[in-house]
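F.,

This is the one I mentioned.
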């Protein structure tokens, strides 16, 4: 009778530990899915931004024919930013991929800022209804990107905290829950930190 009681207590402890480990595992999976979903929202907003840029360039081209170098720089930066996003989508949360995404978005912000500064010299372009609408949509999209990036970084922080704290770290190590990288804006690139000025 005594050995049966010991066996039952032992089995209850094993079952309790198993349920506890499953709960931690499920919490880690939920957190990982949370930051992946948050990254998907960044993807949606950046795709919207990429879709607006050719229309913006086409509108500006009619007024800024001799500013060809600036317009081509915008298209080239857009292409590089799309490549950066593709790399980040292939490996979301990977430190190198997120750094590439941040750098390419920073370059795009810089050339868009330059385009808007040059556009200031063209009163007819500034007054163009299509240009004003596109500029407003681009500005709105920049805000959405910033909010999506903040939500992503918050979700990554929750996940990384969960996977690094004991006892979750034991389960995270056993099941290879890799760390996720924040989408950081390089401190030495001021143009990355600010959305391009698109007010007309």
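My design for it:
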């Amino acid at each position: 009778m005594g050995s049966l009681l010991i066996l039952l207590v032992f089995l209850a402890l094993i079952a309790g530990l198993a349920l506890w480990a499953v709960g931690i595992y499920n919490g880690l999976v939920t957190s990982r899915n949370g930051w992946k979903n948050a990254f998907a929202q960044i993807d949606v907003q950046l795709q919207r931004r990429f879709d607006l840029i050719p229309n913006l360039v086409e509108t500006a081209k009619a007024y800024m024919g001799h500013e060809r170098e600036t317009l081509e720089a915008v298209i080239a930066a857009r292409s590089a930013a799309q490549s950066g996003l593709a790399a980040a989508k292939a490996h979301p949360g990977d430190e190198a991929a997120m750094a590439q995404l941040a750098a390419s978005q920073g370059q795009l912000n810089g050339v868009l800022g330059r385009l808007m500064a040059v556009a200031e010299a063209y009163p007819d372009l500034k007054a163009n209804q299509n240009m004003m609408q596109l500029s407003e949509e681009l500005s709105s999209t920049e805000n959405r990107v910033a909010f999506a990036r903040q939500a992503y970084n918050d979700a990554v922080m929750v996940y990384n905290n969960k996977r690094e704290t004991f006892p979750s770290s034991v389960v995270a190590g056993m099941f290879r829950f890799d760390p996720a990288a924040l989408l950081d804006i390089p401190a030495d690139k001021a143009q990355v930190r600010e959305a391009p000025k698109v007010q007309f």
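The helical segments are 2-61, 68-90, 95-119, 123-127, 129-164, 168-174, 190-193.

Talk soon.
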